[in-house]
Amino acid sequence: MASENAGKVKVAAVECGAYSREALSKAVDAAVDAAGGWPKKIRGAGKLLLKPNLLSARPPEQAVTTHPEFVRAVIQSLRKAGVKRISLGDSPAGDHPWEKLWETTGMAEVAKAEGVDLLPFENIKRVDLPDGGSLPILKELDDFDAVVSLPKLKTHLLTKVTAAVKNSYGLIPGKSKSVFHGRHQSPADMGRFLADAYGLLKPDFVLMDAVECMEGQGPANGRPFPLGVVLAGADAVAVDAMACRAYGYEASDIPLLATAAERGHGVADSALIEKTGDGWDLVETKKPKRSTSDLLHKIPPVLFSGLTMALACRPKISHDACVGCGICERVCAMNAISRDGKGRYKVAWRKCVLCMCCVESCPKHAIELKYLWSRLFG
Ligand code: SF4
Ligand code: SF4
Fold this sequence. Notes:
- The structure is a single chain.
- The chain is α/β, with parallel strands linked by helices.
- It has 2 domains: 9-291, LarA, N-terminal domain (Rossmann fold, 3-Layer(aba) Sandwich); 299-377, 2-Layer Sandwich (Alpha-Beta Plaits).
- The protein contains 16 helices and 18 strands.
- It has an 8-stranded mixed beta sheet with strand order 4-3-2-7-10-13-1-14, with helices on both faces. A two-stranded antiparallel sheet has the order 5-6.
- The longest helix is centred in the N-terminal third of the chain and has 14 residues, at 21-34.
- The structure holds iron/sulfur cluster (2 copies).
């Protein structure tokens, strides 16, 4: 008799209560095994790319970026599987100096200790999108035989959740991202665009850092939350479809995941996914808090710009926290951020398309999305 799991996509969740080397080593190896083992393509890769989430130059304890000890455990697991040449890279929005990004996120120390190259992604090639137009992607991808995605599980003000599927967006040059956000302003439009981009940038395996996920106003300004799991699988859509349950979502609640599945880029239907590993109780019961993105998703795309303006839903820069680095000014494709007469950075609401690139890129946590009620009463 055929097993009830025959033909299903495996997604593993394994308990891991701390970023200690011993706990992570066990959890990463167990998650890989529970997801079916490292695929042959990865074991046989001459050159392999690790793609963590390095959103901006933030220290690991803020849970904005993939934790360096998690990355170390994955490198060691890959070494045991026989992979020799490993590089690590990401292309965050904005123009963060590479050395500062790697030092602050802890990647510099891990890469040095584990013999891994750090790649400053800088060269571009264009690939065609299915519905016309083209996408700039990082030319350096041609150098690799396989890609392992290492996302951080976080809330997101625009897409509700950011995890494995959205992590592939980091393979688009950082400076192009704000332009695409400007073109696809509503959450639904952006979800469709991201799903198409993901179809061209699928990783070969996913290991997700949810030892501490993010709750609240992610992906940059939320709080760390101890979910205590490592998730793994070969299908990023399936991994995300199960991971988003931590926030009480189904895949159908997340336009990016629903569209990615509709377009055949992966499996989002939980009936077609086999859950393995000992961490599912934690995923389904601990309930980190969502961001306020559910409100934005209720606005019809055609009304998005006008209504968010009317609700005073725009980024606000804290002059106390701002150090004047100028990253936000340079990342904003709409030229909506500039200095005022006193030299302080301000957002011009009428130019802003609410892409969140400045919020995500600020290394000092100085930009937050504000709504009318928080401006009136906050
Ligand atoms: S708000 Fe200030 S600290 Fe943040 S990116 Fe802009 S200039 Fe830099
Ligand atoms: S001000 Fe910020 S949110 Fe508005 S368009 Fe510019 S980068 Fe995007």
